[in-house]
User: What shape does this take?
Amino acid sequence: MKHLRSNLIATTVAAAVTLGAAATASAFTACQVTDTGGIDDNSFNQTAWKGVQDAEAQLGIDGRFLESQAETDYEANINSLLGECDIILTIGFLLGDATQTAAEANPDQKFSIVDFAYDPTIPNVLGQVYATDQAAFLAGYLAAGMSETGILGTFGGINIPPVTIFMDGFHAGAMYYNEQKSADVQVLGWNPESREGLFTNNFESLDDGRAFAQNLYDEGADIVLPVAGPVGLGSAALADELGTDALKIIGVDADLYLTDPEKGHVYLTSIMKNMDSTVFQVIQSAKDGTFEGGVIVGTLESGGVGLAPYHDMDAIVSDELKAEIDAIKAGIIDGSIKVGM
Amino acid sequence: MTDLTNTGATQGEKIDTGQQRQARITGGVLLGLAVFTVFVFGFDAAGDATFRLSRPRDPFALPNLVVPSGPFLYIAAAVLAFLGARQFVRGGTRWTALSLGIGLAVLVAAFLVWATAGKAFSLTGMLQATMVRAVPIALGGLAGVLCERVAVINIAIEGMLLAGAFTGALMGSLIGGWGGLLSAVVIGGLFGFILAALVVTYRMDQIIAGVVINLFVLGLTSYVTSQVFAEHRFLNNAPVFRAWKVPVLGDLPVIGPVFFNQNIFVYGALVLVATATYYLFHTRSGLRARSVGEHPRAADTLGINVYRTRYIHVTLGGMVAGFGGAWFTLGSVGRFDENMTGGRGFIGLAAMIFGRWHPVGALMAALVFGFADSLQQKLALLNTPIPSEFLAMSPYIATIIVVAGLIGRARAPAADGKPYVKE
Assistant: This one.
């Protein structure tokens, strides 16, 4: 059915291309190649595709996508789009090699890849990476300010940079709070010096998310940041059962209040990685003719990363704390506050 | 603990030598562990290890268990050395396994004290997590015991757990927790019946039949999750069975939270293990079932319907696995996601083998696994100098060591895996 639907969409898009070509002289086409998660994965690929859809609505371009069912599809999918698209967007760290090969063989084709930065850069590839630690820093400060026990917890899926960058920022934010307020808030589950911490070592077992959050709760944590994709939904189930006075959860990647509405009330906030915003920017630059190879970093300033609204928790976050968060955000943007070590 | 009663006089001496050699090895291992404890743990231990026994809301608060790490480690090393020396000098008695058991327990305690020196963690929380994490594995193992005791190898436990989890989430969302639980048990039983039909009536290869069921369930549930649940979210929002505290007993310190303040899946697993043990080893039908697993032809000759016995027990095994699968959704997180059982069915199968095809043995193996699993989570918080990847392996390693060291050789039912053809 997935294939059927893709075909259907492809046909629709093809029709749109024809119509578009008839209406405007120069139609611009942006094509997305997903990783194996699929276009409707509720996170990564879907968020990037939203960026393409936004561009369709606002810039009048045409968008199409190809889903990769397996890692062996990456190269074939990219090759089948060569010459048909003004820009090819490849989604995810795992497509790094395939994108590089295709880009070097076709120097006139524009590419952009999410979560990958080439070193040295390739002239026709624009890498999109995210300073997630900036938003996580805000979340760490917020959590430190909200915690009643003075203990925060975090755990990750696998000990790899795209995961630990959240934990680094979260830890740094809590430490910054300690510095500012002479407080002694602790963060359990991640040690930025030794690069070791609490990891489920999978992105599948939801009951791990519950067990790991219970572990942190038993050690006194009242706010937990799970950085393990769907595994974090298990942590949300525990918070729902214990009550949000006892345990609150901070979401990652998207605003989980919106994407996990059944348990929405347990999320204090979410650390968002706005792939749609950077994808939109890249398409815009390609359309305007300002596209250049290199790296674009999604930051607080560019809107590439950010903190989600507090939603149901809005009433219990003090105005003072909200103002401090806004001030820190401004500080990070103008460079007066450093989130890195 | 080799049984000497039925060995002939000529063989007696030979076995004694073997036992002595085993005792020497055990003694050597224990002495080695004593040295290890002194040199690795003893030298850099500083400060007290604090184990929190009570949690803030417990009615009878116990003070924290504070252990001075230095002295404790030297005492532990002394105990290990004594046990080892005793085995080495005058081994060959039935104390060998017991000494090794005590030795391993002392080693684990020493390790905990070393890791916790100067810090604190919740011991009660860890033991409670041990129990919770053992549930799906114990139920998977029990499902395996029921099937293999009638000589049907059940590789499909993983698939049955997954089917139970899926059904629990779907039906739980539609008709409530109890309805979801019942449906999960029924679906588990259905897959058990299908397995029985494939291997008993159609004499399909048992491993292949099991793998087929695993792949079928994984594919179907993943498909429905991504295509249906993603759009109709209310179908995947089941209630979770909360912990139910046994009056009085549940308020006891340490023991209360671990055994008497859990949800129905923990109680259910304990009751099922006890019932299955009684049934298999103390009732007439249990004996008949076991005879079908050991020597189906003899059982058939005596008028036992081999096919029917196998159908019934494999279906029962499927129902137990379905119940265990419901734990993932109704007993834990209230929603289903692709492949959320994460291989626990296979670990359950291993627990069954480690537990020597005995329900209590399977439960014990599951508890060892659960303990090592919750232990590694605590160690990750204590900033021990052990890499997290290694900690993640520890549950598997611990299970292997305990089984290899303490359980010894296990014997499967004689007819295990062989189809029976009635003449």
Observations:
- Chain A has two domains: 2-116, 133-273+305-334.
- The first strand of chain A starts at residue 29 and ends at 33.
- Confidence is low (pLDDT under 50) at residues 1-25 of chain A.
